[in-house]
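Weekly puzzle thread! Below is a chain. First person to post its structure in token form gets bragging rights.
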Amino acid sequence: MADQLSDEQITEYREAFQLFDKNGDGSISAKELGVVLRSFGMNPSDAELQDMVNDVDADGNGTIDFDEFLGLVKNLKTDNEADDLKEAFRVFDADGNGLIDREELQKVMKSLNEELSEEELSAMIKEADVDGDGQISFEEFKAMMGAK
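Winning reply:
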């Protein structure tokens, strides 16, 4: 879990965790988690907080220790990255049909002041187009962008 966060991030999260571990027992409750997340600008409901605790509470004690907290942070970070990827895909998918075709790709590249030849366009599509339909689906887009 922690291997996908930098040492600096882990230190920041540990400081936040300790700040909100009011009784110093090394774990935070759903209520304390709410305070932490609100400090990061999120506004989860009580039910959402309990779901978050349940999702990462590996030992089933109803609270989150630091390692479980890192798991939660990583999940939230991954969710945000997925949202960013969907937004980027929508920029390319002008007609909203869930696929990026040659014309849509050309239009976006042109708006970025990148004039591509037909060969370059074909090469870009071919590189990402796993199923060979001549278009790029969201799954193919994710793979092309190196996302999981």
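Puzzle host: Confirmed. Bonus trivia for everyone else. The beta strands are 27-28, 64-65, 99-100, 136-137.
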